Amino acid sequence: MKTSHYSESYHEARQKFLDATTDADRRFHDPIVDDLTIDTAVYEAPNPKNILMVVSGTHGVEGYSGSAVQLHILERFKDRLNNETSLVLIHALNPYGFHHKKRVNHHRVDLNRTFHDLPADYTTGDESIDAAFDALYPILTPRRTRGAGWIESLRFYGSILPLVIRSKRSGTYGAVKNAIAGGQYRYPDAPFYGGNGAEKEVEVFHRILTEVTEGQDHLLLLDCHTGLGKRGEAVYFAANAPDSDAFKDLANIEPSFTSIVTDGTQSDEIYEAKGTLVQYALRHTRSRYASAFGLDIGTIPNIPLLSRIIAENQVHHHPDTPEPIARKVQNEFTEAFYPSSPHWRANTLKLYDDFLEKLVGKFGLG
Ligand SMILES: [Zn+2]
After folding, report:
1. Ligand 1 midpoint to CA 215 (Å)
2. 92: domain CATH number?
3. What's the gap in Å between 90 CA and the centre of ligand 1?
4. Range of 143's domain?
5. Which pLDDT tens digit goes with each residue over 231-273?
6. How many domains does the chain have?
């Protein structure tokens, strides 16, 4: 698997994507902020019925791997799709996060918690989750300038580990995990903030989704993520309900598929989230059927991953952070979502290659 598909900057990745899609039937370039754009390439099938849509960079920095996956698809799968299957690649859905190596967008919003329809949707809708987040807020959002690494580690692990142990004993670990990572709408300065209204990236996605799926039979949407799960292994998640035919077809390809709409607590890796892109796609697609799913490729364990998300947010909100500390925090954050290991990168493409091979076969796209 080609590690040359990977880039070290947003502009390098964008250029590779544009160079690789000069033969597309249609391309869109949607500016989001500064000179940063969402770029889309559409390859229309002669007799279009199915849409294979692949999204990179919903979580900004996670797009480095997603971008490499898209180049891999252009190289290895595009010409093998049958004459009923169109290919739509959306590159860098959160181009700000991609460029600055953040998960959030320029409003510090976690894009994958903000795909909602109505103003009233920007809430967890669950008082117990809100109360759990209130209790966790001081740990998740330290109100002080970040100090040396070892002091911060002691502070973080000293507060989080007793909580994890207690919740695992009492069987509430899943609830705690959901409260932390499932998205929140009341603290703009805390991690996993889902915003309070439609972000521009959501509007762009809506326009592309509705346009390309109009009159189509089947949308297959793949959203590419990194960070969750065991290092070098894929977590397979779907927005389709567990009892739906679409979900059963996916589980047929990969038995470990988990639905994010229910039973999120059955897996240690998956949390229940609201406002995700895959759920939104199911609600808004114009196609008759849709399968909306994603892969998350594991990097480092959950708790250290959380500590790096907290640290990145803390440094952002304390501009007086000494430069060496700020740089170290950013480097560790980048490494947590975009590992530099050539082995991890090659293996990630291999995981996608295996999955796409089965997907194309199962759904008769090739
Ligand atoms: Zn993600």
Report:
1. 30
2. 3.40.630
3. 15
4. 1-366
5. 999 999 999 999 999 999 999 999 999 998 864 444 555 566 7
6. 1
